[in-house]
Specification:
Blueprint lengths: L42 H16 L4 H8 L19 E2 L5 E2 L11 E7 L4 E6 L4 E5 H6 L7 E2 L4 E2 L14 E4 L5 E4 L5 E4 L1 H6 L4 H12 L14 E3 H6 L1 H13 L2 E5 L7 H9 L10 E4 L15 E4 L11 E8 L3 E2 L2 E5 H11 L1 H7 L3 E9 L3 E9 L1 E3 L5 E4 L17 H15 L6 E3 L6 E5 L3 E5 L2 E2 L7 E7 L1 H16 L3
Parallel strand pairs: 11-12
Antiparallel strand pairs: 1-2, 3-4, 4-5, 6-7, 8-9, 9-10, 12-23, 13-26, 14-24, 15-23, 15-26, 16-25, 17-22, 17-24, 18-19, 20-21
Helix pairs in contact: 1-7, 2-5, 7-12, 9-10, 9-11, 10-11
């Protein structure tokens, strides 16, 4: 389990420099996409300000990681001059610094190459004094020539059956244009660009940096002091920079409000088309959250909903959720959200045994009914999923669909209830809950693997029922679009 991963994410600043925060203080994150003094009734100004100011900050939040990958294990120093608008540098896991990122990407050049025959490694010595090691087998497997790689698809043509995994090399050299050339025993030649090699260095620092660049796994944790980032619906639809800022904030913070959508059905589908396509579930491509007689889901009632993630009854729950307010209730209906990852870390600190229980036991969930078609779902999910390195990666919890079947040994039943109650109690602490009221035209977009959301009970007028339209997407599609937007807006790194 990682420690020290709670971030300090402070307001966009107009100071001439960004102050370094201290890693010893694990305070709760406060996210603000604009100086508080400028929050007012002029929402149009606020939306355009988000697109203008948040874009250059959020989109480059991973750039230090990219630079770190390119520099392999070598430490990077922040430039002396900070941009006009920046995020105060934040301490992340293992005390790495993720700062405002007007950092240049260095152009690396090769000083010398040589081979270690016994270890079957090629050594690249860089002009900056560092070096990188590359296994012979990996280099042969990733030859970039037209015989071995289909360049138009960036796909490997070389068959693994034809790969000699014990290959040696005949010769290596630096070409006149600064590339690395290798001649293999079968007289095949591979030529590698220096930057291509540098980004794929096998050092632990470079590998971690590349993971961050590709997947943006670092998160800005928050509590009730969060000011939810906002963006303009139409700007997101039509401007790549605004769309990129939206998706980066969605990934890092977990929730973004879009303002200004038409208060009519069909807008979540328009927004999904900006990314790719909707996730079809048993409730349809989109679904209407209204008070319904003979409701097939507790969301389709006017009662209070407890904090939950959607669809843990699926083994692969949707990663992202959109909710569009078309009509709001006459009274009540406020929404609530908590940062499930942050709450899980709190649980780990306060009650390690409860954390171990919720990350080890697989709990049964069920959902049965008829909507898009009839369904009878059963799943087994851990309440808190962690990856192979112990990092929290997904929350699966919905009290309404938690099954009466509890397939755990008898002696673990009470410990499970105690652990789950401890986690839910942390989530329900007032200092951890963000409450907001959606207005017609608002679309809330959030990470369904991370956030738990709820709704207070409400009363609607018979002639104007509370009405939200919802939709799901998967993180694979969202991250695909994010990478494409980043390339379109800023070019290849």
């Amino acid at each position: 389990m990682q420690t020290g991963s709670t971030f300090h994410l402070l307001s966009f600043q107009t100071d001439s420099c960004c102050r370094q925060t201290t890693a010893r203080h694990l305070q709760t994150t406060v996210f603000s996409a604009y100086p508080k003094s400028n929050w007012g009734s002029d929402s149009k100004m606020w939306m355009s300000s988000f697109a203008r100011l948040a874009r250059p900050v959020l989109q480059k939040s991973a750039s230090p990681m990219v630079c770190k990958a390119l520099r392999a294990c070598h430490r990077m120093e922040l430039p002396g001059a900070a941009p006009s608008f920046c995020i105060t540098p934040v301490h992340v896991r293992r005390h790495q610094t993720l700062g405002s990122a007007s950092l240049p990407v260095a152009c690396h050049s090769v000083r010398h190459v040589r081979v270690l025959e016994e270890e079957r490694l090629m050594v690249v010595e860089w002009e900056d004094g560092g070096q990188s090691l590359y296994p012979f087998t990996w280099l042969r497997d990733n030859c970039q020539c037209p015989v071995c790689t289909l360049q138009s698809a960036e796909a490997r043509l070389l068959l693994l059956a034809d790969l000699d995994i014990h290959t040696g090399v005949d010769s290596v050299e630096v070409t006149k244009d600064g590339k690395v050339s290798i001649v293999w025993p079968e007289k095949h030649m591979s030529v590698f660009d220096a930057e291509w090699l540098k980004k794929r260095c096998f050092s632990p620092a470079a590998r971690q940096a590349m993971r961050e660049e590709l997947f943006l796994n670092e998160r800005f944790y928050w509590d009730a002091s969060l000011r939810i980032p906002r963006a303009d619906f139409h700007e997101v639809l039509h401007d790549d920079g605004a769309a990129l800022a939206w998706l980066l904030a969605l990934r890092r913070v977990g929730i973004v409000h879009l303002k200004g959508a038409p208060a009519e059905q069909g807008q979540v589908a328009r927004l999904a088309e900006r990314i790719g396509y909707l996730r079809l579930t048993f409730y349809g491509h989109t679904w209407q959250v209204q008070d319904k007689s003979m409701a097939n889901n507790v969301a389709y009632t006017s009662g209070k909903l407890s904090l939950h993630t959607d669809y843990p009854a699926l083994h692969f729950a949707p990663g992202v959720q959109f909710l569009h307010c078309i009509n709001q209730a006459e009274e009540g209906g406020e929404s609530e959200v908590v940062d499930g990852f942050h709450m899980a870390e709190q649980l780990h600190r306060e009650d390690p045994e409860a954390f171990r229980t919720l990350t080890s036991l697989r709990i049964d969930f069920t959902d049965t009914g008829t909507d898009y078609c009839d369904f009878m779902l059963q799943s087994k999910n851990r309440i808190i999923d962690v990856d192979s390195e112990g990092n929290i990666c997904k929350i699966n919890y919905n009290n309404a669909t938690r099954d009466s079947v509890l397939d755990v040994p008898l002696h673990q039943v009470q410990p499970f209830y105690r652990a789950l109650k401890a986690y839910v109690d942390i989530m329900n602490r007032p200092e951890n809950v963000v409450t907001y009221l959606m207005e017609p035209g608002d679309i809330v977009t959030f990470d369904n693997w991370r956030l738990l959301h709820s709704r207070k009970s409400y009363v609607s007028r018979p002639d104007r029922l509370r009405h939200l339209e919802g939709a799901y997407l998967d993180w694979d599609e969202v991250m695909s679009r994010l990478r494409i937007l980043r390339r379109n807006v800023h070019g290849d790194v």
